[in-house]
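INFO batch 0412 | record 1 of 1 | parsing
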Amino acid sequence: MTFRHRHLLGIEHLPPQDITTILDLADSYVDLNRRDVKHSDTLAGLTQINMFFENSTRTQASFEIAGKRLGADVMNMAMQTASLKKGETLIDTALTLNAMHPDLLVVRHPQSGAVNLLAEKVNCAVLNAGDGLHEHPTQALLDALTIRRAKGRLHRLTVAICGDIAHSRVARSNILLLGRMENRVRLIGPPTLIPAGATEWGVEVYDDMARGLAGADVVMMLRLQKERMDGGFIPSEREYFHRFGLDPAKLGFAAEDAIVMHPGPMNRGVEIDGTIADDINRSVIQEQVEMGVAVRMAAMDLLARNRAAKPGGVYV
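INFO prediction complete | emitting tokens
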């Protein structure tokens, strides 16, 4: 199984064959995770450090479970209350980490590019768990695995990504991955939440759910990220749900066998109706959570195999 990357910093540098490699290995870990004994010694003797400069219960828990199931020694560092608040720079943090000799470093950071900077300074494999508005590669990969298992393929599908595109690193990573795998990607949302120049990304852009969802195979809803907004992007949550929230009537425009996705956490009644989120025939939201553990296990497994690679190569 060939995967020549030293880090997993984004989807941008992954060709289709590397995406497929991760997903194929993740498939095997889905099987492991469904056994009574969910344990492997793949990462036995290796140390994994989770550094989350932003809170994220779901992603951090997923990475922690993934590492422990592979046999790694897992350490969580509460960076919100740690040395950076005392004035330490990111580079100083990297030097401190090097002295601890970790093998895998999982990082979430509010600033775009911060994870890439750390990767340049540390002597271990780095996994991007989300950086600013830049990327969230493992979320896109787990979404891809969910789609592939539900639809039987990951190409020539029509995927509608709906909602707060402007503030979503999940959307960016999914657009890159789905486009690379030859899918038709549509972005749906109010003009205030669609990034400038989005039409140049090889996607279709709509401000109307009926037209945007027409015939879609996959409907991916995004959380309204109010914490990243510094102005009046929407008139009100009630108006937003009326126009862009997914309910049975709007879902009726999609393909009859369309699946519904959401990266979580969900704002029920804002971007998605609760009856849709809980519909076991259409919603694959819980499957996304399950696939997340398997994808992160696969990514760490593949990077651990390359941990002896010397810095300065073509690894990204």
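INFO post-check: The two ends are 18 Å apart (CA to CA).
INFO record closed
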